[in-house]
Design goal:
Shape: globular
Structural class: mainly beta
Number of helices: 0
Distance between the termini: 18 Å
Helix content: under 10%
Number of strands: 9
Strand content: over 45%
Amino acid sequence: MPRTSVSAAAQNTWSDAIQIVGSFNLSISGTFSATVTVQRSDDGTVWRDTDTWTAPAEEVGYDPILNYYRVGVATGNYTSGTVVASLNGYSNWPNRM
Protein backbone atom coordinates (compact mmCIF):
# COMPACT_ATOMS: atom_id res chain seq x y z
CA MET A 1 0.00 0.00 0.00
CA PRO A 2 1.68 3.25 -1.08
CA ARG A 3 1.96 6.07 1.44
CA THR A 4 3.35 9.58 1.25
CA SER A 5 3.54 12.38 3.78
CA VAL A 6 4.76 15.93 4.21
CA SER A 7 5.57 18.25 7.10
CA ALA A 8 5.07 21.71 5.57
CA ALA A 9 6.24 24.90 7.29
CA ALA A 10 6.52 26.95 4.09
CA GLN A 11 4.72 27.50 0.83
CA ASN A 12 5.36 25.31 -2.25
CA THR A 13 6.04 22.24 -0.07
CA TRP A 14 4.72 18.90 -1.39
CA SER A 15 4.83 15.23 -0.51
CA ASP A 16 6.35 12.80 -2.97
CA ALA A 17 3.84 11.61 -5.55
CA ILE A 18 2.29 8.15 -5.26
CA GLN A 19 0.04 6.19 -7.60
CA ILE A 20 -3.40 5.34 -6.22
CA VAL A 21 -6.41 3.45 -7.55
CA GLY A 22 -9.61 2.76 -5.61
CA SER A 23 -10.05 3.94 -2.02
CA PHE A 24 -7.55 6.19 -0.27
CA ASN A 25 -7.19 8.06 3.03
CA LEU A 26 -6.04 11.60 3.77
CA SER A 27 -4.93 12.78 7.21
CA ILE A 28 -4.19 16.44 7.98
CA SER A 29 -2.97 17.53 11.42
CA GLY A 30 -0.92 20.23 13.08
CA THR A 31 -1.39 23.80 14.18
CA PHE A 32 -1.27 26.02 11.12
CA SER A 33 -2.67 28.89 9.13
CA ALA A 34 -2.46 27.55 5.59
CA THR A 35 -4.48 25.96 2.81
CA VAL A 36 -3.66 22.28 2.27
CA THR A 37 -4.20 21.02 -1.29
CA VAL A 38 -4.48 17.52 -2.74
CA GLN A 39 -3.43 17.33 -6.36
CA ARG A 40 -3.95 14.62 -9.01
CA SER A 41 -2.02 13.92 -12.20
CA ASP A 42 -2.35 11.27 -14.89
CA ASP A 43 1.33 11.55 -15.88
CA GLY A 44 3.10 12.77 -12.70
CA THR A 45 4.10 16.10 -14.26
CA VAL A 46 0.93 18.14 -14.88
CA TRP A 47 -0.92 18.63 -11.57
CA ARG A 48 -4.53 19.63 -10.96
CA ASP A 49 -6.03 20.65 -7.62
CA THR A 50 -8.73 18.22 -6.43
CA ASP A 51 -9.66 19.71 -3.04
CA THR A 52 -8.42 22.04 -0.27
CA TRP A 53 -8.61 22.25 3.55
CA THR A 54 -7.79 25.00 6.02
CA ALA A 55 -8.05 22.93 9.23
CA PRO A 56 -7.06 19.45 10.45
CA ALA A 57 -9.17 16.73 8.83
CA GLU A 58 -9.56 13.00 8.21
CA GLU A 59 -10.97 12.18 4.78
CA VAL A 60 -11.51 9.24 2.46
CA GLY A 61 -11.59 9.34 -1.32
CA TYR A 62 -12.07 7.10 -4.31
CA ASP A 63 -10.56 7.12 -7.79
CA PRO A 64 -11.53 4.33 -10.22
CA ILE A 65 -8.52 5.11 -12.44
CA LEU A 66 -4.82 4.77 -11.51
CA ASN A 67 -3.52 8.34 -11.01
CA TYR A 68 -0.68 10.10 -9.23
CA TYR A 69 -1.53 12.03 -6.05
CA ARG A 70 0.36 14.39 -3.76
CA VAL A 71 -0.53 16.65 -0.83
CA GLY A 72 0.99 19.93 0.30
CA VAL A 73 0.85 23.69 0.53
CA ALA A 74 0.93 25.64 -2.74
CA THR A 75 2.69 28.94 -3.36
CA GLY A 76 0.77 31.77 -1.70
CA ASN A 77 -1.18 29.44 0.63
CA TYR A 78 1.03 29.50 3.76
CA THR A 79 0.97 31.93 6.68
CA SER A 80 2.30 30.14 9.78
CA GLY A 81 2.67 26.88 11.71
CA THR A 82 3.29 23.34 10.49
CA VAL A 83 0.98 21.16 8.41
CA VAL A 84 1.45 17.40 8.78
CA ALA A 85 -0.39 15.56 6.02
CA SER A 86 -0.37 12.02 4.64
CA LEU A 87 -2.06 10.08 1.85
CA ASN A 88 -2.28 6.32 1.56
CA GLY A 89 -4.17 3.97 -0.71
CA TYR A 90 -3.79 1.12 -3.17
CA SER A 91 -1.52 0.99 -6.22
CA ASN A 92 -3.57 -1.86 -7.69
CA TRP A 93 -7.05 -3.21 -7.10
CA PRO A 94 -7.16 -5.22 -3.85
CA ASN A 95 -8.21 -8.87 -4.09
CA ARG A 96 -11.89 -9.50 -3.46
CA MET A 97 -12.84 -12.55 -1.46
